[in-house]
Amino acid sequence: ELNNVGMPMEMNTLIVTKSNEKRVQENLFTLQKDGYRLYPIDIPIEIRTTLEGDTRGTALIKKVEWENAKTTITYQLISLNSSN
């Protein structure tokens, strides 16, 4: 008999960095989150520092990797909201 153990999955429609992003190139960043998460790829989505915070800009997710109960995304910042 097979044990049917599911993989908990969360769908995310915005990027919340909590200031944990790492710059790879000028406008390319990586971010690691706990758990397995789905993100839309190559569709502009909001990026925020905190869930309740103001939108910092818009990003395109280029890659999503799942490993060891963590999700790593690589995203390109395509617009930045200026803070006045």
Spans of at least 5 consecutive residues with low confidence: none
Average of the residue pLDDT scores: 90
As laid out across the biggest beta sheet, the strand order is: 2-6-7-8-4-3
End-to-end gap? 61 Å
In percent, how much strand structure appears in the residues?
A: over 45%
How many β-strand runs? 8
Put simply, the count of helices is 0
Structural class: mainly beta
What integer value in Å does the Rg equal?
14 Å
Rough shape? globular
Biggest sheet details? 6 strands, mixed
SSE ordering = EEEEEEEE
- The percent range for helix content is under 10%
Please describe the topology of this protein.
Layout: E1 9-11, E2 15-16, E3 22-25, E4 28-34, E5 36-38, E6 45-48, E7 55-67, E8 70-80
Parallel strand pairs: 1-5, 2-6
Antiparallel strand pairs: 3-4, 4-8, 6-7, 7-8
Structure explained in plain terms:
- There is one protein chain.
- With 84 residues, the protein is an all-beta fold.
- It is 0% helix and 56% strand.
- The strands form two sheets. A six-stranded mixed sheet has the order 2-6-7-8-4-3, with no helix packed on it. Strands 1-5 form a two-stranded parallel sheet.
- The termini are far apart.
Short recap of the structure:
This protein is an all-beta fold. It has strands at 9-11, 15-16, 22-25, 28-34, 36-38, 45-48, 55-67, 70-80.
Index terms:
single chain, 84 residues, mainly beta, globular
